[in-house]
Design brief:
Hypothetical Protein Pfu-838710-001; 8-stranded antiparallel barrel; 9 strands; alpha+beta; about 45% strand; about 170 residues
């Protein structure tokens, strides 16, 4: 499945407040997912295998490293838990980084929200305005993302411009 997101990632010092806002907006809570994202050494974009108790996907995406709402072009392939795809990818491409996180997943219409607690990195919130079939458009997705950023009172200095894998790799270099 190919789709487009307009998304942000931000440090989250107030996960309880975000939860309350989502509850007040009648967000659909999908649950708490213990996820391991294994990033592989891809020649283009990013390639990761997500292994969780809710979400299990092979995800390829292209996204610029910039703060604020940004476009991601995504190809998503649903995988089975405990499949051998990880071993195949590790042996053929090599592992770049592994991200271990606890992720709360919520939806309001086409907008997906994550409250993440990432091992060795801290707490984050993500907003993903998703266009799965090309009917919403970039302008509306950006408007949705900005609306929820304002609702959550996300400050510009809390915005993150890189992926969790990049953050992990930077920590290893320190």
């Amino acid at each position: 499945m190919t789709h487009i997101n307009i998304e942000i990632k931000a440090r989250c010092n107030n996960p309880e407040e975000i939860r309350e806002i989502l509850k007040s907006q009648n967000a659909d809570y999908k649950g708490l997912d213990s996820q391991i994202d294994t990033y592989f050494k891809a020649s283009n974009g990013r390639l990761k295998l997500r292994e969780g108790n809710i979400e299990n996907d092979l995800i390829y995406y292209e996204r610029k490293n910039e703060k604020g709402p940004k476009q991601s072009n995504i190809i998503l392939y649903k995988t089975a838990q405990n499949s051998q795809i990880k071993e195949i990818l590790e042996k053929s491409l090599g592992t770049l980084a592994v991200v271990d996180k606890q992720r709360e997943i919520y939806f309001i219409d086409n907008v997906k929200f994550h409250i993440d607690n990432v091992r060795n990195l801290g707490s984050f919130v993500e907003i993903e305005a998703i266009d799965r079939n090309g009917t919403i458009g970039i302008e509306k997705l950006t408007e949705q993302c900005n609306y929820y950023m304002n609702l959550f009172k996300i400050e510009k200095n809390d915005l993150i411009d890189i992926s969790y894998s990049d953050m992990m790799l930077r920590n290893l270099k320190k």
